[in-house]
Structures are given as C-alpha cells and as structure tokens.
Specification:
The complex is a heterodimer.
Chain A: E1 2-3, H1 12-16, H2 23-36, H3 52-56, E2 58-59, H4 72-77, E3 85-90, E4 93-94, E5 106-110, H5 116-125, H6 131-138, E6 144-148, E7 157-165, E8 170-172, E9 175-180, E10 185-196, E11 200-210, E12 215-223, E13 228-238, E14 243-252, E15 255-264, E16 270-279, E17 284-293, E18 299-308, E19 313-322, E20 329-339, E21 345-354, E22 359-368, H7 372-379, H8 385-398, H9 407-421
Parallel strand pairs in A: 3-7, 6-9, 7-10, 8-11, 9-11, 10-12, 11-13, 12-14, 13-15, 14-16, 15-17, 16-18, 17-19, 18-20, 19-21, 20-22
Antiparallel strand pairs in A: 1-2, 3-4, 5-6
Chain B: E1 2-11, E2 14-24, E3 29-33, H1 40-48, E4 54-62, E5 65-66, H2 72-78, E6 80-83, E7 90-94, H3 95-109, H4 117-131, H5 135-139, E8 141-142, H6 148-162, E9 166-170, H7 178-191, E10 197-201, H8 205-210, E11 215-220, E12 223-228, H9 230-239, H10 242-249
The chains are: A alpha/beta, B alpha/beta.
Bound molecules: adenosine-5'-triphosphate and magnesium ion.
C-alpha cells in the first residue's frame, strides 16, 4: 500500500512495468508528467478542485492497476437496446471481441493495430502539456480511432467504459479519436459504469475532428460510484461550416473534472455545449470549458445547469476567446445553479477575452434558490411544497436535455432526475 | 363559509390591511372594488396563504377552522382558489401536467382515488369547452409566452378543474377582449352552486353584468368602507371614488 501523493513517484513502478507498446508516446507523456506532477490548488485552473482527496487515499497496485473480473455478458447486459455500434472499454482498454459493430460506413481502428506514426499523428493533434493529458499519454492504452466517412452513417455510436476495481485499485486511461470527414454526421454516446469496492482513477482523452460541413454530437453520461475519480478531457477541432454539440450529464461520482475545449478553425461553424450536474453527498464536479473563436462568422452557445445539494460542490469556468480575426462572432454562455443546501458550494466564473471588435458576446451566471413566486403558484393549486419544489427542479433540469437526439438517452437521464427528485 | 374579522396585514413592515371585515356565505358572489393600491390583491394573497404577507392582527375563519394556521397548499386542498391578477410563467411545467398533480393531491386529501389518465382527460376536455381554451395552450409550458388574455383564461380553466369552495378572482377581467369576457364569465357561472362562493375583484362594472354579485364592497386604505348591492357598482362607475374618500375622511 502506498498513498498516491502529489508527485508522479507513486505511479513510477506501474509506468516502468508496462510492456513496450506505444513506447515513444508513453515516454514523452511520462517525462512531461514527471516535470509538472499533479495539479495543486496553487494552479489557477485547479483553485477550487483539490485533488488532495485522491492523494491521501491508500492505493494498492500490486495487481498491476488494470485487472478486472467482469465478463462479456455483464458488459452486454449494459448495452442500450438501440441499433448502433457498441464499443466496450474495460479499465481504459478497448476490447474488440466484446464490442458489437453495426452496419454502415464506420471505420474503426484499435490503437494496437495502428502503426506508430499514424498513432503519433493522432495523439499529437489534441491537447497540451497539462497533467491530465500527460498521464493519459504515459499510460496510453488500447484506444480507438473512429473514422466517419462522407456518406452519412446515421447509426449512433455507444461507448461503454467499465471501471472494475473488484480486486484492487485500478486505473483507466482510455483514448477515443473521432474523425468526421466532410459532410459526415454522427452521434456518439458515452457512459461509464463502476464495479468493485476499491478506488478507481481515470484520465480520459477524447479528440474529435469535425470536418467541413460535418455534424457531430457527443453526449457523456457520468453516473459513477463514490470511489471513482475522473479527469476527462474532450478536445474538439471544427473545420469550416461544421456543427458540434457536446452534452455533459454529471449525475454522481466522487470527483469529476471535465475539460471541454473547442477550437473553431474555420468560418461559419457552430459549437454548442450543454451540461447538467445534479449532485449530492460529497460529490465534486468541475466543468472547465474553452471555446476558441479563431475565424470570422462563427456561433457558440453554452449552457450549463446545476442542482447542488447536501455537501456537494460544483465548479464552472467558461472561457471564450475571440481572436482578432474572428469578426462577426456570436458567443453566448450561461451557467445557472440552484443550491439546495447551506453546505453545498458553487463556484462559477465566466472568462471572456475578446480581441475582435465586431462581435456579440454575452455571459451570465446565477446561483439561487427556487423562485418563491413559482413555488407559491404551484402550492396555491394544492400541490405540496416538496412536490412543487421537485416539479420546478425537474423543469429546470429538463432544458439541458432538449438537444439530445436519442430518446432512449433523454428518457434515461430524465428518469434519473425524476427518480432523485421523487416525482 | 368565510368570516374575516379585523384583519391586519403588512408587507415589509408596511401595513396594508388595517382592520378589514367581511363575511361570505355559501352560494354568494361578492364583488370587491376600490382604487389602485387599496389592498385588494393583498387581501387575496393573504387569504391564499402567501408567506411574504404578515398577518399582524385579526382572524379568518373558513368552514369553522382558523384559516391562517394553514399553509398555502393546505388551504388550496380545503377549497380556496386564487385566480392571480398577474399569473406568472413557469417554463418547463405544462398546465396539463401540473393540474393533474394538483387535482390528485386534492383528491388524495379527501380520501379519493387518483384519477387515471382517461378520466382526467375527460374532465379536462369538458372544462376546456367551458372556457373555450385550446388544448395546444395547455400542453405548453405554463403561461410561457401566453397573451394576457390567454393567461386569464387559463386561470379560470384551472379553477374549473379544481372546483374550489371559495374562488377569488383578482381582476380576471383585465386583459380580456369582450368575447373572452363573456366566455370566462360563463365559465364562472357554470361552476356556481349553493355550496360555493366567489369573490370577484374588479375595476369595471361591465364584468358584473355577466357575473352578477349579491354584494359589492369598496376597499379603501386597507378596509372595507362601503358595502351595497349591485347598484353600488353602477354608482362607482358613474361617479368614481371621490365621494367615498370624502365620506371616509368625514
Ligand atoms: N412586496 C411589496 N412591497 C412593498 N409594498 C407592496 C408590496 N406588495 C404590495 N405593496 C403595496 O401594497 C399596497 C396594496 O397593493 P395591492 O396590490 O394589494 O393593491 P390593489 O388594491 O390590488 O391595487 P390594484 O387595483 O392596482 O391591483 C400598494 O401600495 C402596494 O404598493
Ligand atoms: Mg390588485
């Protein structure tokens, strides 16, 4: 047993015991991680999200950090009953034989099957030298590269991450690469499952390239156990006239840090980010988002909503950059929170940096209780206060589901919300 | 049915109701008129149980019980209904949905089984026809983007669904066009029975041509300063409030 302290050291034996796969990328990742170590509260970007809780926990990597005991049947029992491509990751590794690929023009390559140059090209395209990226590289696993062809493939892609910590502490460092070519359309749905009683730590990388005139929707459902710690990076590059939607639903988990970075690399793009966090217990969810307007005539819309109860904490930081060249930009951002207890904490910060002059930008954040007039209206019709409150919260949360394409996903999240609210 | 005695109420330490008396029996319609700011909506809110208003004196007895002891939702389940002067918008909650919840909670408190979807729809269709309100309006978010008149119609529709004992209509006529006024009044009259009562707050005698009151009261400065029959409304329409103000001062 060791504790995972702030330096990279605790993970070194694990790093060194890896096989020779992806050596170059892993070594570079480790070198970078070793230099920075884990972020601390002194790091501006982690001011309100202390990773300390992870580092104080005892971890036991004697089983190698990636072992699991779940099987294929278990994984399949979690599949959505929807036609599509069902991709299975267990502790960060893509398992082809457990996955089920539907009809249609989708080309999938497991990282194991890519030559090292192609892999390096993918991996070097996304991210920067932040610790959560570096550690993902240092432990690069069997990720997957999904290429969506020009002819429209309408079947959705479901990505299931199984995090099994039955035997000992486990880790996962999944990598998902999506390349939507010109005019391609694709919806991806990602969901994580925890099993086992030990601690699990994950650092995800998802890199999405949205080609000219392509349309990509990426929806994440994070409903994890209390012993799950997650850093999750989503990097998106949009080409001219492309559309992108991110939906991020964080419903439970011990600590989740989502970094969502969208770079608008062509004219007439539209980027949308919607998020909902609904937290209780001691959950901590941090959404850091970046929209980088680098070209003229692009629109971005961002709406994150949160309900924070008990001792839970929510952090939102939304950066919008409008570069000098990005004239005629429309950028909207808002973050609305409802706090249900005196012990819940919410930190929200919009950060706009604008170098162009002909732009329309707006941002707003609210932290509040429920509207007392609305509560009174419902109560004056005979509805009990608890129910009235639940109805208003349900309505508040529901709006974040409006943009999800697939009913089965909408219904699932909606049911979860209503279940929690008891309505 | 309801007896209000020497009622005093304030908001933010400002006294609005200053010793108000009013008694209403089952089967009666009472109209309350009075200048702007005299306290009509305050009275309505206090009766409905809005906590922002503090009752500082007096009593309200409803069906033999001390009404002021109960929370807003309990009062509603006992049969008090307020049609708001300014109905608010509630995004994401549809009228249909919330009325079903309300109706079933009221039924539950009376020991009745909840209505199933079919029966609920049947009642809804019937009451919709009473106030000539459109289905599409009811499946939308509550009052969101409704016109002024549509909001008022929705208030009366809700009243028709919940069948209150005591309905308080706070300027339900304002914002209604002439046809809608008749329709809404017909709805109210349809609900009228020997067991329930209505308080109609209005500025215009016109509404009282359709909902004929048994009594007309003038509320001024937080008190009922004059009561009479329907003819009082006609006199107010013709002469305004000056003569009443003078009487009060004298
Ligand atoms: N929240 C509040 N804070 C302070 N004063 C208030 C508040 N609500 C009402 N008042 C005051 O109480 C007084 C009575 O208001 P009320 O709405 O009861 O009048 P009303 O008789 O219904 O008038 P109208 O005919 O214009 O509808 C007014 O002077 C009003 O400004
Ligand atoms: Mg009023």
């Amino acid at each position: 047993m060791v504790t995972l302290n702030h330096s990279a050291e605790a993970l070194r034996p694990l790093f060194e015991s890896q096989d020779g796969k992806f050596e170059k990328i892993r070594n570079a990742g480790w070198a970078s991680f070793e230099k920075t170590g884990w972020p601390t509260r002194r790091d501006e970007e982690y001011k309100f999200t202390a990773l300390d809780a992870i580092f104080k926990r005892n971890v036991d990597f004697s089983d190698g950090g990636f072992t699991y005991s779940i099987d294929k049947d278990y994984a399949h029992s979690k599949f959505y009953s929807e036609d599509g491509h069902h991709l299975v990751f267990v502790n960060g590794n893509y398992i082809e034989s457990w996955s089920s690929i539907g009809e249609g023009k989708l080309s999938l390559s497991a990282f194991d099957k890519l030559n090292s140059e192609n892999l390096a090209t993918i991996v070097n395209q996304f991210g920067d030298d932040r610790a959560s990226v570096a550690i993902n590289h240092a432990f690069l696993s069997n990720g997957i590269s999904i290429k969506v062809g020009k002819s429209v493939d309408s079947l959705p892609v479901f990505i299931y991450h199984f995090r099994d910590a039955s035997e000992s502490t486990t880790l996962s460092f999944p990598y998902i690469h999506v390349q939507a070519e010109e005019n391609a359309q694709i919806c991806l749905y990602e969901k994580s499952f925890s099993s086992g009683t030990h601690l699990h730590f994950a650092s995800h990388m998802t890199g999405i390239e949205v080609g000219r005139n392509a349309n990509v929707q990426f929806t994440k459902i994070q409903g994890l156990e209390k012993r799950d710690y997650t850093l999750d990076n989503l990097f998106v590059k949009q080409h001219e006239s492309s559309h992108f939607f991110a939906n991020t639903f964080s419903l439970s988990g011990s600590l989740i840090r989502n970094n969502t970075d969208i770079s608008l690399d062509g004219q007439h793009c539209e980027a949308n980010m919607y998020g909902l966090y609904f937290l209780d217990g001691h959950s901590h969810v941090d959404n850091h988002t970046v929209v980088d307007h680098r070209f003229p005539n692009c629109d971005s819309n961002e709406l994150y909503k949160g309900i924070v109860d008990e001792h839970a904490a929510a952090v939102f930081n939304g950066k919008i950059f409008v570069r000098q060249a990005a004239q005629k930009t429309n950028a909207f951002q808002s973050n609305n929170n409802v706090s249900l207890s005196d012990t819940a904490t919410i930190h929200t910060k919009p950060q706009l940096e604008i170098w162009a002059d002909d732009v329309k930008c707006s941002h707003g954040c609210t932290i509040g209780q429920l509207d007392s007039e609305a509560l009174f209206y419902l109560e004056s019709r005979g509805i009990k206060p608890d129910m009235a409150k639940a109805m208003l919260l349900g309505a508040f949360a529901q709006e974040s589901l409006d943009h999800v394409n697939l009913d089965i996903i909408k219904d699932e999240v909606s049911a979860h919300i209503h279940n929690r609210l008891g309505v | 049915m309801i007896k209000i005695e020497n009622l005093h109420a304030s908001i933010e330490d400002k006294e609005i109701l200053r010793g108000l008396n009013l008694e209403i029996n089952a089967g009666e319609v009472h109209a309350i008129m009075g200048p702007n700011g005299s306290g009509k909506s305050t009275l309505a809110s206090v009766l409905a149980g809005r906590v922002e208003y503090e009752v500082t004196g007096g009593s309200v007895t409803f069906d033999g019980e001390n009404l002021l002891e109960f929370a807003a939702d309990e009062r509603a389940r006992k049969g008090i209904f307020l049609a708001f002067q300014y109905p608010i918008e509630i995004p994401g909650v549809s009228t249909t949905n919330f009325l079903k919840t309300a109706l079933n909670q009221i039924r539950e408190s009376k020991g009745l089984q909840p209505l199933n979807a079919v029966d609920f729809l049947k009642i809804m269709k019937e009451r919709m026809s009473w106030v000539e309100i459109d289905q599409s309006l009811l499946s939308r978010s509550l009052n969101e983007g409704f016109s002024g008149g549509e909001k008022k119609r929705n208030e009366v529709f809700q009243m028709a669904m919940l069948e209150p004992k005591l309905a308080i209509l706070d300027e339900t006529d304002s914002g209604l066009d002439i046809d809608a006024l008749k329709i809404v009044a017909n709805g109210v009259n349809k609900l009228k029975s020997a067991d329930n009562a209505t308080i109609v707050v209005t500025h215009y005698q016109r509404l009282l041509d359709y909902i004929v009151p048994d009594f007309v009261h003038v509320l001024y400065n937080g008190r009922i300063v004059k009561s009479g029959g329907k003819s009082l409304a006609l006199k107010l329409e013709a002469e305004g409030y000056d003569w009443i103000k003078e009487e009060v001062v004298a």
